[in-house]
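Supplementary Note 2. Why include the ligand at all?

Several targets in our set were suspected to adopt different conformations when bound, so apo predictions alone were not considered sufficient. For every target with a known small-molecule partner we therefore ran a joint prediction. The input for pyridoxal-5'-phosphate is given below.
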Amino acid sequence: MKRVHNFSAGPAAIPTEVLEIVRDELLDYRDTGTSIMEKSHRGKEYSEIDVQAKERLTRILGLQDDFHIMFLQGGASAQFMQVPMNFLDKDQTADYINTGVWSKKAIKEAKLFGKVHVPFSSEDEQFSRVSTKDELQLSDNPRYVHFTSNNTIYGTQYRVEPDSNGAPLICDASSDFLSREIDIDRYGLIYAGAQKNLGPSGVTVVIVRKNFLQTATKTDIPTILNYKTHAERIFNTPPTFAVYMVNLVLKWFEEKGGISYFEKLNDQKADLLYSAIDSDDFYRGTAQPNSRSKMNVTFRLPSEELEAKFLSKAAENDLVALKGHRSVGGIRASIYNACSLESVKALTDFMKHFRDKNG
Ligand SMILES: *Cc1c(COP(=O)(O)O)cnc(C)c1O
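The joint prediction is reproduced in token form.
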């Protein structure tokens, strides 16, 4: 068996230790004679997994009892619709910060339900940065302020939460969830598709503040799309296998040392990689320096020919999935929690070698 250095943007690398547990438990889950996939979502074993995963998230994020945690389906893309469907009425305005393709998709959906004000956009700068501290032009009294904490495609990330002037923040944290400390008090709702930093595809973690959910009073919402349907109980069949894997990833996450451990490790990995990019003119980072992402590191080479060669030589060296998003090209190394320091070292060693031969 061979495991390569996987820099996939998503679905992304899952810790080998977790995959080994999944393999070992696949046919016979804890002496029950069936796989966890073959069990009722109301049964003892799955209920335990659901409770454990929520307890772990509560512990990791320091949530107390003031948040609901839900495991929903439809990806982060469904949240683009579900958030305004629940929280935005026709005559209300929500502010949506526009820092990339995912933000734009969220804006498009919100406009189906209410008014959208865009307090900042970096579209005319090729989304090469996020907003700075005093730059947001918020509307008067927005229903909420939506932002994308990490822009997976452009390799930009907020260092700290944008200042919403007291309005609840709603965050698409799909590509940096649990990668660092956040100021949880400022959030009304956070959502993240699992397939980047949390496990396999098929489940989206949605965390909503209880007293913020109480302000959602619209009644014309289909049952399955109403957050209140899912807040207190398992309503219908959840993606049980995906949640099972998320729970194992969270267990691994806590055993390794939790958020402070991963924040430090992620800083180290990003520093290493950006130093390699900045060491001369051969590699060129595409994000503006103070917006650089610690999760998706995007860069270019002097020509597209060299980029193609870089990708194929990298793959020969077991460094895979480094191609930039199809909409922007170039190189993208996604270095989520499950990507080890060793993998990043292997990449920076390769980068030096490649530059020496081709620079
Ligand atoms: C990947 C990604 C999405 C899309 O997620 P789906 O699960 O495919 O809907 C949305 N937002 C961000 C920030 C992402 O990285």
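Residues 10, 75-77, 102, 148, 152, 172, 174-175, 193, 196 surround pyridoxal-5'-phosphate (CB under 6 Å). The chain is about 35% helix and 15% strand. Comparable summaries for the other entries are listed in the accompanying table.
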